[in-house]
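A protein record in our archive is deliberately plain, so that people and models can read it alike. The record that follows is passed on verbatim for readers who wish to inspect the format.
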Amino acid sequence: MSDMLFEIEDKIATLTLNRPETRNAFSDEMLTIWADALRECQMRDDVSVVILTGKGKAFCAGGDLSTMGKEEPANNLKHYLQTKVHPVARAVDQLQKPYICAVNGAATGAGMDMTLYADMRFAAQSARFAETYVNVGLAPGDGGAFLLPRLVGLTKALEMLWTGDFVSAEEAERLGIVSKVLPDDELQSYTREFAERLARGPQLAMRMTKKAVYDGLRSDMFQALETISSHMGVLSDTYDHKEAVKAFQEKRKPDFEGR
């Protein structure tokens, strides 16, 4: 059985971390499939939304401590991160489609970092989050030091990064780490229904909106206004925009085609 499951159905791709016996800790196979699957999702016209989740009771424990330091010298950790772990982050950065994480259990260390790359996160009530690198004498190696302060603010981020303490799903929602907390048995169905709603939306507009949001985080306001004006000019000439205006005038729901 593969360490990462990859399925596509009704324009929704689902990536499932599949090493429940290790709390879905990373393996080389998992990371390779993960990055490749994200690149494939970006290229495929039959994928509009991507869901990431985990198999079993945990979401992801990050690096596998049972093998860390055995397979290669510690001074090659940088090479491992750059060639195995960070390609997933780079593939996420190139994904123009909605990327939703359904956090089904504990997300720790790089496992928590990987949730932060998603556009939004829904969490099961049993989920917990912790930046546990400090507990093994390491710094956050998969983007946590960059991403977490942008969600929770500098002070709370440093508290989490320096202590490695867990926060509950409810606390994560209060902090803005997750959008919604669901009963464990409702997480997957809610995430799927939300993804289906997005998949029915105007895909070009949604992708340009995502690009505008992330570009805006990397630029100043006036550059963001310049960029979004160009996007709006393109979108105003699309079928979906014209169909939406026509549907409004005819008092019906628009039928978007992603063009």
Remarks:
- Residues 77-94 form the longest helix (18 residues).
- The chain has a mean pLDDT of 91.
- The beta strands are 4-9, 12-17, 49-54, 58-60, 99-103, 106-108, 120-124, 128-130, 167-168, 180-182.
- The chain has ten helices and ten strands.
